[in-house]
Input
Amino acid sequence: MLTLYDFNRLNTNEKAEAVWKGTFLADRRDGGLTVQLYRLDAFYVEVFYHAGSNQIVEFRSFSSNNQLAPYLAPPRVI
Output
């Protein structure tokens, strides 16, 4: 089982391989980037992707559910 700490020690190519084995959960926009959220074992990884250059800009990993807030829809007002 890959841990958050193990993931953080991987190089960029190894991180990409690990993420593709995870479960895709959601995506969102952040400025000019697409951010995709994946679940790997007991933690999450955000992949920041720039479509114009077709490149991954950053991986951000975390285990706290509090950091899922950007993916949750705001409450609907009826």
